[in-house]
Amino acid sequence: xxxxxxxxxxxxxxxxxxxxxxxxxxxxxxxxxxxxxxxxxxxxxxxxxxxxxxxxxxxxxxxxxxxxxxxxxxxxxxxxxxxxxxxxxxxxxxxxxxxxxxxxxxxxxxxxxxxxxxxxxxxxxxxxxxxxxxxxxxxxxxxxxxxxxxxxxxxxxxxxxxxxxxxxxxxxxxxxxxxxxxxxxxxxxxxxxxxxxxxxxxxxxxxxxxxxxxxxxxxxxxxxxxxxxxxxxxxxxxxxxxxxxxxxxxxxxxxxxxxxxxxxxxxxxxxxxxxx
Amino acid sequence: xxxxxxxxxxxxxxxxxxxxxxxxxxxxxxxxxxxxxxxxxxxxxxxxxxxxxxxxxxxxxxxxxxxxxxxxxxxxxxxxxxxxxxxxxxxxxxxxxxxxxxxxxxxxxxxxxxxxxxxxxxxxxxxxxxxxxxxxxxxxxxxxxxxxxxxxxxxxxxxxxxxxxxxxxxxxxxxxxxxxxxxxxxxxxxxxxxxxxxxxxxxxxxxxxxxxxxxxxxxxxxxxxxxxxxxxxxxxxxxxxxxxxxxxxxxxxxxxxxxxxxxxxxxxxxxxxxxxxxxxx
Amino acid sequence: xxxxxxxxxxxxxxxxxxxxxxxxxxxxxxxxxxxxxxxxxxxxxxxxxxxxxxxxxxxxxxxxxxxxxxxxxxxxxxxxxxxxxxxxxxxxxxxxxxxxxxxxxxxxxxxxxxxxxxxxxxxxxxxxxxxxxxxxxxxxxxxxxxxxxxxxxxxxxxxxxxxxxxxxxxxxxxxxxxxxxxxxxxxxxxxxxxxxxxxxxxxxxxxxxxxxxxxxxxxxxxxxxxxxxxxxxxxxxxxxxxxxxxxxxxxxxxxxxxxxxxxxxxxxxxxxxxxxxxxxxxxxxxxxxxxxxxxxxxxxxxxxxxxxxxxxxxxxxxxxxxxxxxxxxxxxxxxxxxxxxxxxxxxxxxxxxxxxxxxxxxxxxxxxxxxxxxxxxxxxxxxxxxxxxxxxxxxxxxxxxxxxxxxxxxxxxxxxxxxxxxxxxxxxxxxxxxxx
Lengths: 276, 281, 436
Prior knowledge:
Oligomer: heterotrimer
Strand content of chain C: 5-15%
Largest interface: A-B, 96 and 89 residues
Order of helices and strands of chain C: HEHEHEHHEEEHHHEHHHHEHEEEHHHEHH
Strand content of chain B: under 5%
CATH architecture of the domain at 60-244 in chain B: Orthogonal Bundle
Largest sheet of chain C: 6 strands, mixed
Shape of chain B: globular
Number of domains of chain C: 2
CATH class of the largest domain in chain C: Alpha Beta
CATH class of the domain at 60-244 in chain B: Mainly Alpha
CATH superfamily of the largest domain in chain C: Periplasmic binding protein-like II
Shape of chain C: globular
CATH topology of the domain at 60-244 in chain B: MetI-like fold
Order of helices and strands of chain B: HHHEEHHHHHHHHHHH
Number of helices of chain C: 18
CATH topology of the largest domain in chain C: D-Maltodextrin-Binding Protein, domain 2
Helix content of chain C: 40-55%
Number of helices of chain B: 14
Helix content of chain B: over 70%
Strand order of the largest sheet of chain B: 1-2
Largest sheet of chain B: 2 strands, antiparallel
Number of strands of chain C: 12
Structural class of chain C: alpha/beta
């Protein structure tokens, strides 16, 4: 009885906290329907007849930052990078775990080492390198994400590979599989749960990344975060309304995706954290 | 397997390794080299020994100020995020109604990018401060607490689900046995629950630690370092040094190397603690 | 073994081919400084392509990030061919990339060659727009004030304001009568949000520093190592006048943006705002704008300096075009051809006058090619006034971004009461010495 009363109390507390957690997004949402000069001066006031701007902010924002092309670039870069990262780092990890020699372990430790290096350390030199090799486009930047994301992904996959009993592989080898078919038929399916983890962690990072796309492709191809930052005013003409509308539109795909794949995302994040 | 697989190196390892070489290994090594030079483009680097490091640590007051700001921010965030996340996790493992929904809601902010988060909170914090007639650029203290609030909003859900996973691994019998032995709820928490989730605590502590320490986007969008550069954290200060003025690239790179060394030191400590724990268990 | 190499090599080479296809080598790449006209440049690129077949690519840096963006772009293989420098300060930073423009057509058509950015060796920057700023006022409101029976001043028109003392008397009297005038303050908000404070840390500071440097016989070609900020008190007088007779409380100024100030002006909530002719598009573009086009006028920035009766508005430029000397000779020529086209062909001039609304400093522009917006006309009016000395844009010799940022931040702290005026002056002097 006492426990039930306590639980009711906790339930109410959680409800209040949940509202507090959602509130910032709701505030941005209703502000996005207000005229641009009524936002900063009274952010907590709901739109009224006088201040209601309809979808004008959305129209202005979409036009100003080229929202749909930004969405397209973000989507393309994220999907391609994540797909290749999952595939290539699973292959690399399997190889590095199964072939043991000085070189593979040196390579493995270099991958692991890269995890602790902050981006600022390679910010300048990496963008120069990208320029030298002509990687300054949505396809080229994928190479950079592969390289910079390799560390964590290889590390996570290696942990999972080690838990695969070698007997399975030996059995497959007797059946005459070559390594490539073995990898795709036997190993990769076993790695599926960890592939989800790697995909989720990398997708969250790449989708939201600002500095790398800004420095490498920012003037030509704006990804969503770069485009949103671009609204930060042009010589005294920051349009708060458009900013609010674009904040809403950039949150929207994330929330949709989250609603669809919630189970995998949470599971992936937990597994990633525990292994990492 | 090993021997026949070995020949497949070009297929399995080479593609990723090349990308890794381009995006990490070469830039990293070159970055270390450049930190000892004066340069405006990669081609015109001239060796200057340690002078960039000397400038970063002595003449340029911004670096040490940013370091101190970052350390303070990290300590406050690590404690607040973890305490609150742990309490949330405790409540959400009691089997109350709507647990899944709550978990979903609390985790959601974690998926939103730093730039967007920065602008969301800039609006809200400025809205609150409006009542006191100031805004977030008034004083670095506001920027500091703004960042703490933002960080909590973003990270609590993430840490909470890790704690929940840890708590769910505790066999319920253990708490029941303790309860039968006459332990109160607080004693159970202190002597049964906490020790059993200590590995989650380590994980969460280090995740919040490194995330707070390396924070850039949120800082950039929320305050941009204002007033002046007083609310700049390390990552932002390095960025400003690099791209804010011509001629200070070498100093920027030296700052970046120092930043890397600090982050590496934190990671090593983490490694030692988790190793030690594995041995203990 | 060899066959096994094939797949990844193929993969990699495909990747390289894909990514290797970069921008056309003959392309002109212009890194534009003015976000407010970014879309006009897209139209210009289309028109230029249509007329000449040459590709022009225009990228625009977000506000306050031009130097950052230029810095990250210029080292690249397909670096900007045309970029902007903001005066001697910019030239000092970018001189390795500035080609000598003395043989270009565009230079030869400068109406006043002394406007160009020159050293003994050559010409490195061509001003492409001349702008003027001062105190913009809404004549409808000032007329209403002049019609008041119980006003405390005796001026008969706004033209009679020729000194700080008169300006102060008028402004303060207007503040007393603000309800009758239907305004919430005389001046629009003094926007001091970081990145929105350029009207004060450069434009207003232009006046005292101009007098200081002229007194010391220093020209506008190099950045002085130090500055005394000798006339800081004169700066303070006008700045205080803005802040104390404003539409908003001092403490809120840190959150105000230029856009807020211009909206207040456009909506008739205030009578005056310090800004330049470029702001007219912003004023007229605001929903619910009540300011009549023929009632927008401009007044000089009087700070109480000796002899300011003959001082005019500030006319000059901080927008110089430079051509990247590291680009190939063909690209450099293509860039020079494009600039000449833009400022001399009928199509180009049409864009400059009506879309960009630039006051172009070239002799290819006749009187009828002038922009017809009210503030542009005001600049011409001041330019043609006799017995008036318009001031140049001395702030182009101010040190870099960090100096300006810190000076702006100090002004904000002064307004909010956390810094004294003498600390602001110290910040100004110290940061100047450090950054120059």
